[in-house]
TrEMBL record:
<keyword id="KW-0489">Methyltransferase</keyword>
<feature type="domain" description="Methyltransferase type 11">
    <location>
        <begin position="126"/>
        <end position="176"/>
    </location>
</feature>
<dbReference type="GO" id="GO:0008757">
    <property type="term" value="F:S-adenosylmethionine-dependent methyltransferase activity"/>
</dbReference>
<dbReference type="GO" id="GO:0032259">
    <property type="term" value="P:methylation"/>
</dbReference>
<dbReference type="InterPro" id="IPR029063">
    <property type="entry name" value="SAM-dependent_MTases_sf"/>
</dbReference>
<protein>
    <submittedName>
        <fullName>Type 11 methyltransferase</fullName>
    </submittedName>
</protein>
<dbReference type="InterPro" id="IPR013216">
    <property type="entry name" value="Methyltransf_11"/>
</dbReference>
<keyword id="KW-0808">Transferase</keyword>
<dbReference type="Pfam" id="PF08241">
    <property type="entry name" value="Methyltransf_11"/>
</dbReference>
Amino acid sequence: MKVSTAATLAIKNLRYHQVGKCNICGKSTIFICIDAATVRNNMYCPFCQSSSRKRHVAKLLINKVISGITSLVEISSKKHLNNLDKLNIYNTDVNEAFSQFLRFGTSYYCSSYIPNIQVGTEIREKVFCQNLEELTFTSEKFDVVITEDIFEHIRDYEKAFREVYRVLKTGGYHIFTVPCFFDKPSLIRVDTSGKEDIHLLPPEYHGDKIRGKILAYRTFGIDIFEILEKIGFETTVDFSNYLDRRFGIFDSYAFCSRKLEVGSRVRS
């Protein structure tokens, strides 16, 4: 989005801005609303550019994985840096708020899928070209995998979930967001049972930093929990509440899937 456009929208939505403290950069700030109808995807922190959705993921990362801090910036301090170095974290996003602070760890990896680059190629230090359906990382490498609004765009999403399961250590977490209906089954937009896509509904595209727009194959539904359970995950969903607003988390939800012990897996 152009700076001039964002500024215009920020002024238009001035009454929706909120004061709080960012749980990523740690700054006391005013969260900037540019679209009151989709605050989950904006309410930007002007310091680290994080959105409400990203701060919700940060909330789960802090609560489930990294103890003793209230914002991710603290992890880069000498007091906590050793804890970060002990964690293998894979984030399927680059050049964003998390990377500003987690990249100081020796075991923090990022990726982006770039069609004309060989999968597995290290684009720059610890930034790889990866396809979630066929990850090139070794099995049980990571303590945490982070994905944000990606799986609705993956053709074979079950294969991708299995790949995330494979690269996670036992007890590790997949913290992720996807658009989801919690009162009905998944909405299948495209039939992917054959080699060619067959559109069942008018195509829906979402914005993408690399390709401009990207096709949404589905909107997940309540059956996502059964799908993940069969793979071997124990999954919970965290809905934002009134107290979360102090960290700029509004009208949001985020999933947390824990990789179970092999003997605890639910057989399909």
